[in-house]
Every structure is written in structure tokens, then in C-alpha cells.
Design a protein that fits this description.
single chain, two-stranded parallel sheet, 2 helices, 4 strands, globular, RNaseH-like_sf, DUF659 domain-containing protein
Amino acid sequence: MMLKIFLFADWNYHNRVLATRAVKERLTAENTAAEIKSITQEFGIKDEHVAAIVTDNASNMVACVQLQWTHAPIVHSNWV
């Protein structure tokens, strides 16, 4: 699993790979949400600072976002 961060700082766009993890469990919505939550906590990213989530539109990813980040819109992309 790879988690990227997209942000604007000083009016400049940045994107970075935040973490890459080998996941041994099935990529269910619950397992994926737990793994992403672990990464965001590790980097001190609070849920309210997440403005949107970009996914590949896989059903487990959509469900993952709906479980954990109900306030953030989901952006579907084929280039994730």
C-alpha cells in the first residue's frame, strides 16, 4: 500500500509519498482504514486536516473512506 500526500504550501503544489507498507491482511475496508489511520497518526495528521481522498474507485477504498473520513469528499482517479 502506498499513501501519498498532496498539499499546497506557500501557494505551491507539492505531492510526496508519505509511506509505503507491505500489507499481509486482505485489503478490506476495515483493514485499509486501520492501516491509513496508523500512517496518518504516525505523521501527526489529524482527521480534520484531510480535505479530500483520492482513490482508484475500488469498492474497498470507497468503503474505507466512508468508514473513517466521512467529512472528506472522495475523488476518483484512474492515475492513482
